[in-house]
Amino acid sequence: MATFIFDTTQNADLYYAIRRSMDDPVFFLEQDSGKQFVFLNKIEYGAFTEQNSVPSLTAIELEPFIDRAKGIEGDDPLRLKVALIILKEYGLEEQAITVPASFPVQMADYLRKNSIALKPDSSLFPGRACKKDGEINALRKSLTNTADAFAFVEGMLQEASIRNSELMLAGEVLTSERVKREVAKFLFDRDMVSDSGIIVASGAQTAMPHHGGAGALLANEPIIVDIFPRDQHTGYYGDMTRTYIRGEPSERVRVMYQAVHEAHQVAFGMLASGVPAREVHKAAAAVFERHGFITDEDSGFIHATGHGLGVAVHEAPAVSASSEDTLEAGNVITIEPGLYYSESGGVRIEDVALITDDGYVTLCDDQVDEWVI
Question: What backbone phi and psi angles, to 5 degrees, belong to 91?
């Protein structure tokens, strides 16, 4: 079945197909034969064809299709008419066409009105889940740079002093904003961008897994750092999380950390091709239950154990209680168990594994060592 996309490369499937960032929406078509076409205006066409790295992909100038679309009667937007012309040009008006679930509703309505059958699909390229050698190398590079960023953060925390309940660095309060800004600069110098943000949260903020962090970093309280940058050249992400204490942790947080660290290790020990992903999650959750940590909708272990990593931060396979995925050789997944309680804060540790036939390999040499600084 042919596949048709109209979107920017914020759509990870489109980026995966053409391997170039495009800020404006473009048309993409994949035929049943596997031949792929991207339709570009003159502004984009020359540079794209010169740098195209996808052998199966051909760039096509868009202007002839625009000229023909202008001859279609009616007040419908030109882009809708262009879509119809492209599909007719490639003989696709007689068959169902797969489109992303995010396909524009207005365009879908217009094409259906003109007898084009569309089938929305949330996973256009399921092959994304099993990485090839070049993708694995790209992920390894991104993760190495991410690990280096953590070493940079650890250096800042080690250099910081404690004044009352706050951390100080070079005579100023050390804030989440300052650490995120410095990390972003560090990564940018390595051609990495944090376009999805950086988490540097402390104290009560750490009880909320996706709290980005704000204000002064607190002494003797958990500090969760989650860095997930994208390589500007390859488009592949890194993703790692560490929890630190500058000072002395409470006994409650110390026990939480030990449980998270054990769940992290147990989950990794489950990894191999053929293992149902939900069983990995269940194994991590069982560790927390054994240590007496209770989960409800607001606290405890309240998120998935992990997720696929590639040209999106979150992609298949899912490692969660409800996952229907089975791990396969070539999957690259995160393992990130965590515990979150409003009265004590949160703890999370995250690393990345490449699934192999008989187990896994890590894509970065960084290890969870000392967390109390």
Answer: 65, 35
pLDDT at 283 over 80: yes
Tokens of 169: 């660095």
- CB atoms near residue 118 (< 10 Å): 17
In the beta sheet, which residues pair with residue 167? 162
How far apart (Å, rounded) are the C-alpha atoms in residues 324 and 336?
A: 19
For residue 259, which phi and psi values (nearest 5 degrees)?
-70, -40
Show the DSSP H helices in 55-132 as ranges. Answer: 63-69, 78-89, 105-113
Give 123-179 pLDDT, tens digit per residue: 899 999 999 999 999 999 999 999 999 999 999 999 999 999 999 999 999 999 999
Query: Which token pair is 84?
Result: 């119809």
283, amino acid identity = A
**Token pair recorded at residue 230:** 């994208």
Q: Which residues contact 291 (CB under 8 A, 6 or more apart)?
A: 255, 258, 259, 262
267-280 in b/e form (b: 16+ CB < 10 A) is bbebbebebbbbeb
For residues 95 and 115, is the Cβ–Cβ distance under 8 A? Answer: no
pLDDT at 370: 75
Q: Which of 42, 11, 27 is nearest to 87 (CA)?
A: 27
Provide the residue type at 284 as one letter: A
Give the residue from 346, 350, 164 showing the smallest Cα distance to 252.
346
Please, which residues have CB within 8 angstroms of residue 47's CB and are 6 or more apart in sequence? none
